[in-house]
Each structure stands twice: as C-alpha cells, then as structure tokens.
Amino acid sequence: MEDKMNPIKKWITAIRAPFFTGIAVPIIFGVTLAYYETGLFSWPLFLITLIGGILAQAGANLANDYYDHKTTDDDINPNFTPFSGGSRMIQNKQLSPGTMLTGAFISWGLALLAGIYLFMVTPGYWVLILAVGGFIGGFFYTASKFAFSYNRFGELAILVSFGILPVMGAYYVQTETFTWSSFITSIPIGFLITAILYINQYPDYEADKAAGKNHLVVVFGRKKAMIGYYFLIFGSYLAVILAVAFSYLTPFALFSLATIPIAIKTARIFAHEYEKVKELIPAMAGTIQIHLLTGLLMSIGCITGGLLKG
Predict the structure, then answer these.
(1) Its pTM surpasses 0.90
(2) Of all helices (H) and strands (E), which one includes residue 298?
(3) In this structure, are residues 31 and 295 in contact, taking their beta carbons and an 8 Å threshold?
C-alpha cells in the first residue's frame, strides 16, 4: 500500500535527482573535451546525450532500490544517510517495489529513444555499444546473483559506467571518433565517481555484509579499505597532472587542482570518522562536491583552451 504524498516530490526522491551530477559531469566534460580538441559543438546533440544519460541513471537508481529491497539489503540497514542506503521509498511505503521497477523500465525506455536518435545521426554502431555497456553496468550493479556489487566488481562497474563510457560516448557523439585523450582523461572523472560510491559503502557496511555484497570495503574491512578511498581521491589529481604533462589535456584543466583543499579536508574527516555514521556524512557530502567541482573545472579548462585556440 502506497502512502499519499506529493507525486512530484515522491518521484524526485525515488530517482534520487540530486545525484544526477554523477552522469552529468562526465557528459559535460566529454563534450567540452571534444570542443577543445576539434572546435566542434552541437547543442542539440549535447542536450539529447545529457537527457538520455540522466534518464538512464534514473532507471538504474530505481532498479537499484528494487533489487536492494529484494535482497533485504536496504530493509535491514539501520544506518542509512542522505547519501547512502537507497531512497527509502520502498521501506517508507511511499512506493511499492513493483512501481519502482516499472518506473525503472519507463526511464530506460525513454533513454532508449534518446539513444536511438543518437545512433541514427552518428556513424557505425559505437553509440549502441556504449549505451548497452552503460546499461549493463547500471542494471547488473545489484540485479541478479551475478550482480557486480556482490562479486567484487562493483567499484569497477561504476568507474566504467559513470566515468569512462559517458566521457567517451559524449566525445564520440560530437566528433564521430575516439581518441586516446577521451579515454585517458576519463580516468580522473571515473576515480571520483567511484570514490562517492566507495565512501557511501562505509555506513552500509554491516547491512551489505549481511546481504552478501562483496564490495571492497566488505572484502578488506573498513580500516584496511581506507587506502582505496585515498587512492581514488588523490589519484584523480595525479591523473589530471599526468594527462596535462603528456599533452592529452589542456593545461587549463589544472584549474581542477583548486579542489585539493576540499579533498584534504574531506580525507581528514574520513580518517577520523570512518567507523561512525552521522559523523561521516560531511565527508560523504565533500566527496560529491569534489567530483562535481573537479569535473566542472576540468570542463571550464577545456572551454578556455578551446576558445584561446580558436
């Protein structure tokens, strides 16, 4: 039985709309990288790519909640936060599991329409291949006994699905080609979105362990797994520096290093509060901020470089 609630607010909460930066940032960066390297930019293609990506993420979020309910992972989790533990719409009886799954397939259906259009206006089958790859990563993150998050591949699936594929896909839609730079420069974006997932697994540790999720925090334990978070956060800055040093990225992308103070502050909170829940929330929020600002500053750097070249 679903409780009565403002339908718009209900679905905004269910699809976790505030977290759409996870897909928006790599798409924006991929498009601006294409502009920097080629001078090409199409507003319609950018907007359709962005809308399609957001719809795909909405579907993945809804399906994620559905399957985390089916495995009882979210149901037995008392340590949920605004950033982890799902939307709680099923647990709070705002939406039924069936409604959530239906919403997921509607979102994916609309995303498919965007994908079909992009497939029709670009050469070859690459848009189709990238879209299918992203869908597999999003859907099978929690779905079925072969789910990536239950078999130690959850972090890799997120890095690929919300880092590498959307950057390269957005780049391809604008330029109709791939370059090594579109792959190499997607790594820092991928590291940072994975860092969001990684730190969000800490409050869920007990519930995930009980449900059989074998992500890296469960496999290595909270203390030993800390090194993974530091690697993802500070490795992203190293990846940007190396990409610039080897001319895969404009020097203006070094604007993104301005977020290092936020990263240091967030890492310090994580170091002291990783075993707590409420106290860890500022570090979880900080990680999202690092991903958003770093990605946008990299994008601004590409726009700046492109304008000065042109």
Answers:
(1) yes
(2) helix 281-309
(3) no
Beta bridge partners of 84: 81
Structural domain boundaries of the chain? 7-309
Q: Each residue of 94-153: pLDDT tens digit?
A: 999 999 999 999 999 999 999 999 999 999 999 999 989 888 888 888 776 678 888 888
Judge contact between 32 and 302, C-beta under 8 A: yes
Residue 115 has phi, psi (to 5 degrees) of -65, -40
* One CATH from 1.10.8, 1.20.1730, 2.60.120, 1.10.600 for 7-309: 1.10.600
Sign of CA dihedral 157, 161, 162, 165: positive
Residue with tokens 């726009």: 303
The CA-atom distances, in angstroms, between 264 and each of 86, 114, 271, 294 are: 27, 39, 10, 14
DSSP 149: G
- Alpha carbon 126 to chain centroid distance? 21
Token pair listed for 269: 């909170």
Q: Which amino acid is at 294?
A: T
> Looking at beta carbons, which pairs linking 119-123 to residues 24 or more positions away fall under 8 Å?
121/45, 122/172, 122/173, 122/176, 123/176
pLDDT of residue 1: 42
Burial class (CB in 10 A: 0-12, 13-18, 19+), 264: exposed
d(CA 98, CA 95): 8
| Position with higher pLDDT, 161 vs 141 | 161
* Residue 24: other Cβ atoms inside 10 A: 18
- As a whole number of angstroms, the distance between CA 59 and CA 201 comes to 21
The token pair at 170 is 């957005």
